[in-house]
Design goal:
The structure holds two protein chains of two kinds. By secondary structure, chain A is mainly beta. Chain A has no helices and twelve strands. Chain A starts with a strand and ends with a strand. Chain B has no helices and eleven strands. In chain B, the strands form two sheets. In chain B, strands 2, 4, 5, 6, 9, 10 and 11 form a seven-stranded mixed sheet that branches. In chain B, strands 1-3-8-7 form a four-stranded antiparallel sheet, with no helix packed on it. Classes of the chains: A mainly beta, B mainly beta. The interface between A and B is medium-sized, with 26 and 29 residues.
């Protein structure tokens, strides 16, 4: 069965410092991986996805993610964190091919302090 | 291009009543997904629909829950005889058709159901 793990419930970062939010996955075929962000009382916003090709994927708001097949990881990164990046971040894997539902990790709360 | 629309945004029901949640996908999107988010948890898949077809309902509870996506109008998630454990945020997502995928899903703002 496909699954996603986000090992950290919370990540604290000072503004201006680099941030990393970790994600590992388990899939039976080709991994289709996604990152979403959720602000309080809002829906999820798409940040980026990995389908194939370059292992470094660039997305919205300056975020990027690095796909590592040998470590089955897809960590989200940003070189310089902003206070406004504080939110809940979800990693997800596509289930059942290109049109299947998403399987989400439990989420990581990112807190960026001034 | 309007995003995914969900209504109502907040819904309060007493135990035993019915809850109807509506979702209008983004223009041009023919695939709809429903997810449920319990407090302090991630989203859990419930059902995947295309127009007039249920493609995958493996995440739906066997009783009291049903979903449809008619040829005309929004997708509806229906919960009969609600219980307190149904209290959650319900999110709808949509994506385009199959060619050229896999596509990301675009999420609506959610409906927060409270059962009293």
């Amino acid at each position: 069965a496909q699954s996603v793990a986000q090992p950290e419930d919370q990540v604290n970062v000072a503004e201006g410092n680099p941030l990393t939010v970790k994600c590992t996955y388990s899939v039976s075929g080709n991994p289709y991986l996604f990152w979403y962000v959720q602000y309080p009382n809002r829906g999820l916003q798409f940040l980026l996805k990995y389908i194939t090709g370059d292992n470094l994927v660039k997305g919205s708001y300056g975020f990027e993610a690095e796909f590592n097949k040998s470590q089955t990881s897809f960590h989200l990164k940003k070189p310089s964190a902003l206070v406004s990046d504080s939110a809940l971040y979800f990693c997800a894997v596509r289930d059942g091919g290109s049109q299947g539902n998403l399987i989400f990790g439990k989420g990581t709360k990112l807190s960026v302090k001034p | 291009n309007a995003g995914v629309m969900q209504n109502p945004r907040h819904l309060v029901r007493r135990r035993g009543q019915e809850a109807r949640l509506r979702c209008s996908p983004m223009k041009g999107h023919s695939h709809v997904y429903w997810y449920r988010q319990l407090p302090e948890e991630g989203l859990k898949f419930m059902v995947y629909l295309q127009k007039e077809n249920i493609i995958d309902e493996s995440g739906m509870p066997k009783e009291r829950f049903s979903a449809e996506f008619p040829k005309e109008g929004p997708s509806i998630l229906r919960i009969q005889q609600v219980v307190r454990g149904d209290s959650a945020a319900y999110f709808c997502a949509s994506s385009p058709g199959t060619s050229g995928g896999p596509y990301e899903q675009y999420f609506g703002p959610g409906t927060r159901l409270t059962v009293t």
